[in-house]
Amino acid sequence: MHLHLTGQHVAVIGSSNGIGRAIAEGFLAEGCHVRGFDRALPGTAVAFETTLGDVTSFEELKAFAATFPAISHVVFTVGVGSGKFGFPFWNLAPSDWARVLDINLIGAVNVAHAFAPGLIARGAGSYLVLTSVAGQMGSQTDPPYSAAKAGLINFMQCAAKDFAPHNIRVNALAPGLILGTSFHTTHTTAESVRATVAGIPLGRGGSAADVARAAVFLAGEFDGFITGATLDINGGVYGS
Hints:
Helix content is 40%, strand content 16%. A 7-stranded parallel sheet has the order 3-2-1-4-5-6-7, with helices on both faces. α1 (18-29) packs across α8, α2 packs parallel to α3 (98-122) and α3 runs parallel beside α5 (143-163). With 240 residues, it is an alpha/beta fold. The longest helix is centred in the middle third of the chain and has 25 residues, at 98-122. The N and C termini lie far apart (35 Å). β1, α1 and β2 form a beta-alpha-beta unit.
């Protein structure tokens, strides 16, 4: 399937490793001009330029957005947890929440504000955010992360309505267990991974490539009537 993305400009926020890097490389394979934004440079060589910055800095994001001559698509892939096991939630302190919300939710809001003028001026394009199955089912493993990702789904729905008159589509991807990502390795053990995989109808964990293919599809012309939607990439895991 040809998605007709050749020559379009794509910004991937959180592009240096894991899912973000896979998404950036997926757009490159479609012939797009890709620029990355991350707080660290990629660990190994990549075929796209990366700007160092922090999603909690609106000024840094505005400066980054200003470098695009004709932005077509923006993808927010950033996600951090509290670094603590939050079951029950009172194992955490209220002070453990602020950074997680600031990066996962307000970071995405900052990105939307920074790129809105360019997307609106072009009169076409898309904004895609990565949320999580945790944001849909109240994961007790890390309540701040779960709540931030739930908030991101709601913000995506609001942004989709605001951008719609300008022919800009806004959607979300909600991955389940994605093996090999930093969040997965921080919050799971080999035993818990085996237990989780056992409950996945497709019988395996996901990969960054699984998420990247969906991200590229949602930017293509075949996604022309999809906005305000959350696409689940979880191998068939549903329920509370």
